[in-house]
Amino acid sequence: MSAPPAEGLVEQWESEQARLRQQVVEEDTEDWQRSPDFSGLERVGGVDLSFIKGDDVNACAQLVVLSYPDLEVMYEDSQMVTLMAPYIAGFLAFRETPFLLDALKRLEGNQPELLPQVVFVDGNGLFHYREFGLACHLGVLSGLPCVGVAKNLLQVQGVYKGEEHQSQIAALQKGGDSFPLTAASGKVLGKALRSSDKSSKPVYASVGHKISVDTAVRLTHSCCRYRVPEPIRQILSLHIPTEINSAFHSLRDSESDR
Predict the structure, then answer these.
(1) Which domains can be identified in the chain, with CATH numbers?
(2) The whole model's pTM is what?
(3) Which of 63, 115, 152, 246 has the most CB atoms around its CB within 10 Å?
């Protein structure tokens, strides 16, 4: 069993999150975001870190870029990485962001014309303990608009998976319907979205960086053929090194605090 995290490291990471949190832009910054049909948006990205079952150190950092609105794969990148930072709930971004940034930098160096105009992150953005999840972390450090889309509800800041939440989910009648995830403070940290007519189970979308919550939700819906947005769903189809192909699973299925 691993030793508990050093208090000093937690304090250091909390301080760094607070510093970077001040740089998050929670509004639309791009012309395409203000267009009803996202005119001008041509490339959407998705990132994820996949882990070998039972191994939380060795992982595969993955990036895809899809055309928009056709949602066809234009670029894909998978690279094995070794995570050095310890796992601490609420601070997964410190383990994972460096490798996702590296993937974006490889693309920018090799094929800059394919750099995505927005990145979907399989995890949370502002909907987080300290309003600074993985999507915010990646957005601030990359400078790209980012959207966090989680498959599981993070019960945080007064948002709980209780009867009221379940009744709100039941009231989502069709793809595109949503309801706000409102913190105890009254601030809307994200929205639960029925992303497809075919799926009654919602996803949880929140601002990462350089996009408003309403635009983030609208864009998420426009990128969904099924429950999960295509830039994230397509990562599951990436070529993964054969030695671990059969053992991969996504940490996000069991951990929603990213």
Answers:
(1) 9-253 (3.30.2170.10)
(2) 0.91
(3) 63
